[in-house]
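User: Need the bound-state model for 3-hydroxy-3-methylglutaryl-coenzyme A:
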Amino acid sequence: MTIGIDKIGFATSQYVLKLQDLAEARGIDPEKLSKGLLLKELSIAPLTEDIVTLAASASDSILTEQERQEIDMVIVATESGIDQSKAAAVFVHGLLGIQPFARSFEIKEACYGATAALHYAKLHVENSPESKVLVIASDIAKYGMNTPGEPTQGAGAIAMLISKDPRILIFNEDNVAQTRDVMDFWRPNYSTTPYVNGLYSTQQYLDSLKTTWLEYQKRYQLTLDDFAAVCFHLPYPKLALKGLKKIMDKSLPQEQQDQLKENFEKSILYSQKVGNIYTGSLFLGLLSLLENSDNLKAGDKIALFSYGSGAVAEIFSASLVPGYEKQLSQTRLEELDQRQALSVEEYEHIFFAEAELDAEGNASFSGYEDQNFALAEIAEHQRKYIKVEKSS
Ligand code: HMG
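Assistant: Bound-state model below.
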């Protein structure tokens, strides 16, 4: 039996901030962002678009009615949770109309969470082959105004349907994880934005990559030669490029090195326009690769490097299934270009707005007509989500 990714969906917010505008407003050389970080734009989410609505939207875009009856587990991986107790997955389960006899829960370890969720989903399908598991990575990355991380913010969700006989990628049995207790990036419960040791975090990312990759090669007798592409966690694409250079095997034929570099370029196209979406970033890179590379074929192996601050890293691989391209979109870049551009003032107002509750814990919201799902109100401290009806 093969198990893997049967479908992948993506959702982001309707607003975009151009980094050229942010650079001008902050008095930074725009090339520092476009060349130094390899970023162009960031998705900006309003108050009515949170990890639940993004997760529901990414999933709704791929699921049939039958699949909603077959899914028996919904996992949302996130580090921007909206409640300390109730899992975002429970809201998402309801919004999507998934059959009731399902297990729904949230999982967290910074940007690594979705990788753990995929592994758990795989084990579940191994035990219960008719099951389908919906794994969603949904996050809003908010560092705050005038912080070093500001140009690397973002918002988005990736939904992956995990099943037997998958139509996109088959998981290989080759995971290697590494945990190290470090304080490179963390967000205490009392803070809406993370604390970041920026330079240290990049060193931890790169060192986790190097050491996990060495262990992976040792355990599975695999080298870069075995892979058509490597996807990386993308806090910002330039760091992943450094990662690729770190593990590049200079003894590989030039043609193969070129293919890996070309595929890397394809894997960063979406992130360059969306920013960091934390848990979903690695899989947004994978989606970008699959939808934009013209040199991949069935059977090709793709290596994935997951990194979550704190820190947990993992390397694993998956193999392409014949006909995988039929499950993908050809219009994603055009759709991203349809987002509404915000001025820096609008971004500051919209992205950092907080719900203003009355004494009973009520607030109602508007302006979500263009969203698929929305946080419509908070009533007595309960978040009320709706599917937005579209007038035809
Ligand atoms: P910074 O202030 O942009 O740092 O902050 P910098 O001064 O080192 O500049 C960045 C690059 O721009 C450098 O290139 C400069 O040379 C270049 P590099 O030396 O690295 O190749 N540069 C220019 N290039 C062209 N023209 C210019 C110019 N000026 C400078 N004029 C920092 C960078 C990472 C610290 C900041 O963005 C930050 O704090 N980000 C947030 C933390 C982060 O993303 N860390 C990444 C690793 S941790 C991780 O991946 C986990 C995470 O996703 C969270 C989670 O797991 O939940 C973050």
